[in-house]
Design brief:
Elements (H helix, E strand, L loop, with lengths): L1 E3 L5 E5 L2 H4 L8 H8 L16 H14 L4 E5 L2 H4 L9 H16 L3 E5 L7 H5 L6 H18 L5 E6 L2 H8 L11 H24 L5 E7 L3 E3 L4 H24 L4 H9 L10 H6 L5 E5 L4 E4 L18 E2 L7 E2 L4 E2 L3 H13 L5 E5 L4 E2 L5 E2 L2 E2 L2 H19 L4 E7 L13 E2 L3 E3 L6 E3 L1 H12 L1 E3 L2
Parallel strand pairs: 2-3, 2-17, 3-4, 4-5, 5-6, 6-8, 7-9, 8-13, 13-17
Antiparallel strand pairs: 1-21, 9-10, 11-12, 14-18, 15-16, 19-20
The structure holds 6-O-phosphono-beta-D-galactopyranose.
The site of 6-O-phosphono-beta-D-galactopyranose has 15 residues, from loops.
Length: about 450
């Protein structure tokens, strides 16, 4: 069967500043944490060892062109642009981002720009990070500076990439700095992130810039083990906590009432100001980026909660390992292609069918060198992964879902948070020693699909 996509469908990939650019003047929480606990990072490889986009941006954009990208998302590094988070703008950073943006546009690759992709400037973390409302204001200033500097040529802005991840990693589950385990502080961080998002949207509207503004959320559809009411309730609470805590404010302009009631009953609500509600209502977006990697399967808890243990989302559900599930063993994530369709249908039916696109989808694989044939990685598994997700996405579009594009994670193999270079995601293989780039089979497949705006599959 031929899967054809609508005209002007966005074909591309995503990356982020910290994972690709390399050394910069302003320190982030990642540099700070790595200097103190390198053992937390796979093979002790830290955020300095990247794919050196700062040096190779021009030839890398040539490679994007070779992959027939018509769009590409990366982020601006707040710490590079404003090293102390709040003070002077670094003119070298302005030059760098201007060159990248101009070159992308010149090559016919529409730049999609994220303002914050997990990379908190250390100077901002030192005053409390997202727990401090002053950081919300500093972020809003940074966003406004970006709109002023680049808003004439960047027409698709994203305030945050996966804002729940720094909440989970930094304040619940110990995989980002500052390694706090405290739900109320996590809720405060999440809440302030929503306020920061809304302030940036407000500034964007006030400036009457030419483009549109949105956010990128990692949506994990919550599937209950069964239709038993206890399992259904468990899935509903997981959905409230992990999806709707951001999805509802940015699309509906308010939090789900049952999430607020639940957190209130456990005394976990962050401190709110009366005017916050108006601000959040103004944070509604034009475009939603959806990152989809894995579903979340849950069941009701089998055991009682230990009342001495810290309050956690898992007080309300257990994770459920569905027999026969397909796994990506390297990352430990389930692969469930229909999830992409379920997300789009949920957006269509419950959120007014917003303009959206798949902003990340991907498969990290360890030791890909074993698949080298005639000097090229033959990553047939990745081609299957993409085409099966695209088939479900296509079904969603044919049923009226407003999905405008598909971006893969990622372009060139890049540094990943605590996993460093363990799992490779790229269309292009990176030789860490030489920095040589070699297009994988999946890159060729994607280039052909983007060119034809379609692909064939049984
Ligand atoms: C997303 C992030 C990316 C990227 C990707 C792959 O959550 O937006 O930055 O890293 O996941 O995940 P990982 O690198 O953890 O394997």
């Amino acid at each position: 069967m031929k899967y054809a996509f609508p005209d002007n469908f966005w074909w591309g990939s995503a990356s982020s500043a910290l994972q690709t650019e390399g050394a910069r003047e302003g320190e982030t929480t990642w540099d700070y944490w790595f200097a103190r606990e390198p053992n937390r990072f796979h093979n002790g490889v830290g955020p300095q060892q990247t794919s050196t986009f700062y040096q190779h941006w021009k030839t890398d954009i040539q490679l994007l062109k070779q992959l027939n990208h018509n769009s590409f998302r990366t982020s601006i590094s707040w710490a590079r642009l404003i090293p102390d988070g709040i003070g002077e703008v670094n003119p070298e950073a302005v030059d760098f981002y201007n060159q990248v943006i101009d070159e992308l546009n010149e090559q016919g690759i529409t730049p999609f720009i994220t303002l914050f992709h997990f990379d908190m400037p250390m100077a901002m973390q030192e005053i409390g990070g997202w727990e401090n409302r002053d950081v919300v204001d500093a972020y809003a200033r940074y966003a406004q500076i970006c709109f002023e500097l680049f808003g004439d040529r960047v027409l698709h802005w994203f305030t945050f990439n996966e804002p729940i991840v720094p909440v989970e990693g930094g304040y619940l589950y110990d995989f980002h700095y500052p390694n706090v385990v405290d739900f109320r502080r996590a809720a405060t961080v999440a809440y302030h992130t929503v306020l920061a998002h809304a302030k940036a949207v407000q500034a964007y509207r006030a400036g009457h810039y030419a483009g549109e503004i949105g956010i990128v959320l990692n949506l994990t559809p919550s599937y209950p083990r069964s239709q038993n009411p206890a399992d259904v309730k468990a899935a509903h609470i997981a959905d409230l906590m992990f999806n709707r805590s951001f999805l509802d404010p940015v699309l509906r302009g308010e939090y789900p009432a049952d999430l607020v009631a639940l957190l209130k009953s456990y005394d976990q609500l962050p401190a709110c100001k009366p005017e916050d509600g108006f601000l959040i209502a103004e944070g509604k977006i034009d475009l939603l980026g959806v990152n989809y990697y894995q579903p979340r399967r849950v069941k009701c808890r089998d055991s009682a909660v230990n009342p001495q243990a810290p309050f956690m989302p898992e007080w309300f559900f257990d994770s459920y390992e569905m027999p026969g599930r397909k796994m990506n063993p390297y990352r430990g994530w389930e692969i469930y292609e229909p999830g992409i369709y379920d997300i789009l249908v949920n957006l269509r039916d419950n959120y007014g069918n917003p303009r959206c696109f798949i902003s990340e989808n991907g498969m990290g694989v360890e030791n890909e060198q074993r698949f080298i044939e005639n000097g090229q990685i033959n990553d047939q598994y990745r081609i299957e992964f993409i085409s099966e997700h695209l088939a479900w996405l296509h079904k969603g579009i044919s049923e009226g879902c407003n999905c405008l594009g598909y971006h893969m994670w990622t372009f060139i193999d890049n540094w990943s948070w605590c996993n460093a270079y363990k799992n490779r995601y790229g269309f292009i293989q990176l030789d860490l020693e030489t920095q040589k780039r070699t297009i994988k089979k999946s890159g060729e497949w994607f280039a052909a699909t983007a060119l034809n705006n379609s692909f064939d599959k049984e």
